[in-house]
């Protein structure tokens, strides 16, 4: 999906109030679904990763993502600092498993050996999901009557932020090799992931 810049200009006060009244945040169960889905796909990468970190939930990243989701913009947050970010929009309901599955599905367009993506396709959501050094995630969601940059109305916007960020130029998302053979000192291997 193409991203567009947010045009400057104030939304009518009525719209702002309506959006705020309809806003909601993820439940603990929903956060667990997002986290578990990320770790599931990370543990199943092919070829296997020799040092894939297990992700944990981070409240600071969640707060950043939630505040940005409330803005209802289909473009990346320019003020997220050194944090990765994935966006997903869906109507009429937000299916969290499907969102992470959709990001991971870009795997079919990505070649780990050459670190290339099929021309005309997107791979950045997938590479962030399986970026081996990323070990913290926090997400936020919001119901938006109108998302700036998307024609369809009444959609749910999901924003996930990651630390450390993935998609660093010149780097592969992970180094292939037997699972957990290069886990950092002080971590243990569980389900092909290096965790605390």
Automatic annotation (TrEMBL):
GO cellular component terms, semicolon-separated: extracellular region
Species of provenance: Menura novaehollandiae (superb lyrebird)
InterPro entries xref list: Allrgn_V5/Tpx1_CS, CAP_dom, CAP_sf, CRISP-related
Subcellular location: Secreted
Signal peptide: 1-25
Membership in a protein family: Belongs to the CRISP family.
Coiled-coil regions listed: none
Domain SCP: 29-170
One Gene Ontology term of the molecular function aspect: peptidase inhibitor activity
Subunit details: Interacts with PSP94/MSMB.
The entry's keywords: Glycoprotein, Protease inhibitor, Secreted, Signal
Protein name: Peptidase inhibitor 16
CDD domains, per database record: CAP_PI16_HrTT-1
Family annotation (PROSITE patterns): CRISP_1, CRISP_2
Chain's role: May inhibit cardiomyocyte growth.
């Amino acid at each position: 999906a193409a991203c567009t810049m947010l045009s400057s200009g104030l939304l009518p006060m009525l719209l702002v109030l309506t959006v705020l009244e309809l806003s909601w945040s993820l439940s603990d169960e929903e956060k667990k679904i997002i986290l578990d889905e990320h770790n599931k796909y990370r543990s199943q990468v092919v070829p296997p990763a020799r040092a894939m970190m297990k992700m944990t939930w981070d409240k600071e990243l969640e707060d950043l993502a939630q505040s940005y989701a409330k803005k209802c913009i289909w473009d990346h947050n320019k003020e997220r600092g050194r944090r990765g970010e994935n966006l997903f929009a869906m109507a009429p309901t937000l299916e969290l498993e499907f969102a992470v599955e959709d990001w991971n599905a870009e795997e079919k367009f990505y070649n780990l050996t050459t670190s290339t993506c099929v021309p005309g396709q997107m791979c950045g959501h997938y590479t962030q999901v399986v970026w081996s050094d990323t070990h913290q995630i926090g997400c936020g969601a919001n119901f938006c009557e109108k998302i700036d940059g998307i024609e369809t109305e009444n959609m749910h916007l999901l924003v996930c932020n990651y630390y450390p960020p993935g998609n660093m130029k010149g780097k592969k998302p992970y180094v292939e090799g037997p699972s957990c053979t290069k886990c950092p000192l002080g971590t243990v291997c569980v389900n092909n992931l290096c965790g605390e």
